[in-house]
Each structure stands twice: as C-alpha cells, then as structure tokens.
C-alpha cells in the first residue's frame, strides 16, 4: 500500500463501523441551513458524486461546516446493530480549518425516491464524465424528516482514510425502490462500500 495511505491499515478511529453498544447522550439538534445548490453529477469511477454550490451550512457543537458534496455507496458502509442497508448517502462538510463532518443517511428498499430519480436520470455512464442537473436540488430532499442521529469520531472511508472526521448517522432511513438500487449497482458494476472497521475504544453516542 502507498505509504501515504498507511492510516487505512494502522488507524484506530476508522470508518465505517457497525453502530452497537450505543451510549445515551443529550446530542444537540443539528443546525442545518441548506440552500438549493446541487448542480452537477459526477461519475468518478468509485461513486456518483453530486457537487454543491457554496453557502449551505451545518452547525454542530458550535462548529460551522459548509456542505461541499454528497455521494453514494451500495450496500451501506455503516451498519446499525449488524444490519446493512442497500444504499447510503454521505453529505460531506468542511469548516474553515479543513475539519470534516459527514452526515450519513441510510436507505431501505421501498417506494421510489423522487430526488434519487432526478440524480440517477442525470448520472453519467462513463468514469470521468459529469452532467449538469436541469433543476438545482436542495440537500434537504435527501434528509429524513426526523433528524435524530448517532455520533462517533471516525475517518474518511477512502484513501488516505484521514481520521478526525465527525460522523453523524441519521437514525431514520429513507426509502428507495428496488429498481433504483439495481440502477446504481449496474452502473458501479461492483459494491463500492468499505467493510466495517473495528470500533476499538470509541464511544458511539445516541
């Protein structure tokens, strides 16, 4: 492995994880100030990523992070009490110092998701291509109505697996149709999730 990626093997706070042995805590509400800003869909070969215009923020624990992009994994990367989900989206935020916070939303199989449909209808077939969304989407549309969450300290799930990332995993899953799941799987041609990593001594708060 590239020495720059050594943390992927040696890190002790790696993501994703199976969220078990949860600790009761008084987690503050997430301060979400999102504007419509999703305007471009990119196929980077590893995932489908939606780029986001500046000006949409997340406030948590007195830190303010700006939403940069969101992207998808199938099956889910994080698990809850051993349960995997067919799809997961990661909303990636950064503060002025480069610290990262990721909101993760899990999807269960059910009714078709209209926002996912808009993105899937626009996603490029070939690696390296990007397409403009005809209508700018708000990230609010891929968040559950009830925004209770689990929190843990983790890492990026792709190299260099940088640690110090604040993970906020929504408790309420959203719905996505079987056909939408299969569309994404067919495009990726392989699972694009990282296996769960050891929790070690980390507290997982709920």
Briefly note the CATH topology name: Carbonic Anhydrase II
Could you name the CATH class? Alpha Beta
Determine Rg (CA atoms, Å). 16 Å
Task: Count the E strands.
Answer: 13
- Described by the principal axes of the CA atoms, the overall outline is globular
Number of domains: 1
Which series of helices and strands comes N to C? HEEEEEEEEEHEEEEH
Judged by helices, strands and strand pairing, the structural class is mainly beta
**Fourth CATH level, the homologous superfamily:** Alpha carbonic anhydrase
- Uncertain spans, ≥5 residues at pLDDT below 50? none
Helix content: 10-25%
**What is the second-level CATH architecture?**
Roll
Mean pLDDT: 96
How is this structure best summarized?
By secondary structure, this protein is mainly beta.
Write the layout of secondary structure elements.
Elements: H1 7-10, E1 18-19, E2 31-33, E3 38-43, E4 48-52, E5 57-60, E6 63-73, E7 79-80, E8 87-94, E9 100-109, H2 114-122, E10 130-137, E11 149-155, E12 163-170, E13 174-176, H3 178-188
Parallel strand pairs: 1-7, 9-12, 9-13
Antiparallel strand pairs: 2-5, 3-4, 3-10, 4-6, 5-6, 6-8, 8-9, 11-12
């Amino acid at each position: 492995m590239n020495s720059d990626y050594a943390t992927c093997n040696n890190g002790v706070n790696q993501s994703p994880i199976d969220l078990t042995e949860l600790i009761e805590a008084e987690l503050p509400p997430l301060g979400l100030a999102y504007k419509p800003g999703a305007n471009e869909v990119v196929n980077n070969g590893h995932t489908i990523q939606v780029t986001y215009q500046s000006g949409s923020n997340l406030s948590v624990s007195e830190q303010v992070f700006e939403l940069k992009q969101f992207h998808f994994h199938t099956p889910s990367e994080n698990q809850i009490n051993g349960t995997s989900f067919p799809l997961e989206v990661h909303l990636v935020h950064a503060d002025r110092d480069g610290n990262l916070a990721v909101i993760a939303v899990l999807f269960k199989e059910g009714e078709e998701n209209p926002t996912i449909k808009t993105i899937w209808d626009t996603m490029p077939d070939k690696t390296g291509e990007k397409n403009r969304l005809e209508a700018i989407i708000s990230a609010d549309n891929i968040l559950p109505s009830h925004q209770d969450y689990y929190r843990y300290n983790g890492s990026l799930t792709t190299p260099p697996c940088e640690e110090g990332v604040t993970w906020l995993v929504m408790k309420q899953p959203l719905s996505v149709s079987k056909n939408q799941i299969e569309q994404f799987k067919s495009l990726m041609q392989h699972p694009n999730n990282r296996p769960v990593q050891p929790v070690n001594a980390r507290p997982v708060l709920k």
